[in-house]
């Protein structure tokens, strides 16, 4: 009987060691695959970025060498400007898996392209003073926001311009054109939806649940509170607002004097923005942890203070366009 028990103990140890060995091999294999995937992603980014950058530089050189007819220069420069914007957004989307060196070099390259475009425009089209781009962008933006107003909460937005660039889909819901209102959407309404908020003044918006994306444009003196967003949050043309939100990536453009209480699992990207304050996410409500799981966000990973400023390339000095709130400035009561 004792011999039998001894044999069972030895067998149990052997089986346990075998399970541990297989588990260790599995972890090692998964780590190797993860590293290979990361390397492949970086390699794809570098190759694609280099190709697109070279194409833009070729177009700039063509204008500089007089290979483009003068009456075609405005449209030529407008296309280059769009290509630079697309390259910039490609870089922003790739930031989660890029090295600091790759991020810095790509940002420097983009800024060089923008500077060269401005220099050529001023020299070759002095009367316009780079005005054609602003006028074109303002016209498209006005049309874009108007169409959002006409479609949010009503009909699909499949005809919206910039759909491919901004990510708007027929899965949208949200609010537009409201003033001094308390607005809210429940989990049943926003779960896995794309939320659009535009042209709000003095409004408080509470989004309790886990939307897919959150797009906000032209908000003034508003407070936006949101549960975890599965993918990206986009903020543009906002002033004097407070945002309390959680997401994978936070992107802010042309926004000033706003405060971000954020939970970001990758990092925040700002551009053409000033006077931005950052603090950790402090919203609390029932079922919030469940919504984090639905969104696929790790509630224990928060890079709220990792901010990349596309308008500030100096690595030895912090950007003057954003700051971390002092402890006595932070809030955690949003009732």
TrEMBL record:
<comment type="subunit">
    <text>Supercomplex made of cofactors A to E. Cofactors A and D function by capturing and stabilizing tubulin in a quasi-native conformation. Cofactor E binds to the cofactor D-tubulin complex; interaction with cofactor C then causes the release of tubulin polypeptides that are committed to the native state.</text>
</comment>
<dbReference type="InterPro" id="IPR038397">
    <property type="entry name" value="TBCC_N_sf"/>
</dbReference>
<comment type="similarity">
    <text>Belongs to the TBCC family.</text>
</comment>
<keyword id="KW-0007">Acetylation</keyword>
<feature type="domain" description="C-CAP/cofactor C-like">
    <location>
        <begin position="161"/>
        <end position="312"/>
    </location>
</feature>
<keyword id="KW-0963">Cytoplasm</keyword>
<dbReference type="InterPro" id="IPR017901">
    <property type="entry name" value="C-CAP_CF_C-like"/>
</dbReference>
<dbReference type="Pfam" id="PF07986">
    <property type="entry name" value="TBCC"/>
</dbReference>
<keyword id="KW-0143">Chaperone</keyword>
<dbReference type="GO" id="GO:0015631">
    <property type="term" value="F:tubulin binding"/>
</dbReference>
<protein>
    <submittedName>
        <fullName>Tubulin-specific chaperone C</fullName>
    </submittedName>
</protein>
<dbReference type="InterPro" id="IPR016098">
    <property type="entry name" value="CAP/MinC_C"/>
</dbReference>
<dbReference type="InterPro" id="IPR006599">
    <property type="entry name" value="CARP_motif"/>
</dbReference>
<dbReference type="InterPro" id="IPR031925">
    <property type="entry name" value="TBCC_N"/>
</dbReference>
<dbReference type="GO" id="GO:0007021">
    <property type="term" value="P:tubulin complex assembly"/>
</dbReference>
<dbReference type="Pfam" id="PF16752">
    <property type="entry name" value="TBCC_N"/>
</dbReference>
<dbReference type="GO" id="GO:0005737">
    <property type="term" value="C:cytoplasm"/>
</dbReference>
<dbReference type="InterPro" id="IPR027684">
    <property type="entry name" value="TBCC"/>
</dbReference>
<dbReference type="InterPro" id="IPR012945">
    <property type="entry name" value="Tubulin-bd_cofactor_C_dom"/>
</dbReference>
<dbReference type="GO" id="GO:0007023">
    <property type="term" value="P:post-chaperonin tubulin folding pathway"/>
</dbReference>
């Amino acid at each position: 009987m004792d011999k039998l028990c001894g044999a069972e103990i030895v067998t149990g140890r052997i089986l346990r060691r075998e399970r541990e060995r297989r588990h260790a091999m599995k972890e090692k294999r998964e780590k190797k695959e993860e590293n290979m995937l990361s390397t492949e992603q970086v390699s794809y980014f570098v190759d694609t970025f280099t190709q697109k950058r070279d194409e833009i530089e070729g177009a700039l050189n063509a204008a500089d060498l007089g290979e483009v007819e003068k009456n075609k220069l405005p449209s030529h420069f407008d296309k280059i400007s769009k290509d630079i914007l697309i390259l910039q957004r490609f870089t922003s989307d790739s930031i989660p898996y890029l090295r600091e060196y790759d991020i810095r070099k790509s940002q420097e390259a983009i800024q060089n392209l923008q500077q060269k475009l401005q220099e050529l425009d001023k020299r070759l089209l002095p009367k316009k003073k780079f005005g054609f781009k602003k006028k074109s962008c303002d016209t498209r933006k006005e049309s874009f926001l108007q169409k959002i107003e006409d479609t949010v909460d009503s009909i699909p937005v499949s005809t919206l311009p910039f759909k491919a660039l901004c990510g708007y889909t027929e899965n949208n819901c949200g609010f537009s054109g409201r003033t001094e209102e308390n607005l809210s959407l429940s989990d049943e309404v926003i779960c896995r939806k794309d939320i659009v908020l535009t042209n709000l003044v003095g409004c408080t918006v509470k989004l309790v649940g886990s939307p897919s994306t959150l797009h906000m444009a032209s908000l003034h003196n508003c407070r936006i509170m949101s549960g975890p967003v599965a993918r990206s949050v986009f903020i543009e043309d906002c002033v004097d607002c407070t945002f309390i939100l959680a997401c994978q990536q936070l992107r802010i453009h042309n926004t000033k004097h706003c405060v971000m209480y954020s939970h970001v699992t990758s990092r925040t990207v700002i551009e053409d923005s000033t006077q931005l304050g950052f603090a950790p996410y402090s919203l609390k409500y029932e079922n919030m942890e469940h919504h984090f799981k639905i969104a696929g966000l790790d509630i224990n990973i928060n890079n709220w203070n990792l901010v990349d400023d596309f308008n500030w390339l100096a690595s030895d000095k912090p950007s003057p366009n954003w700051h971390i709130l002092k402890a006595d400035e932070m809030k955690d009561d949003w009732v």
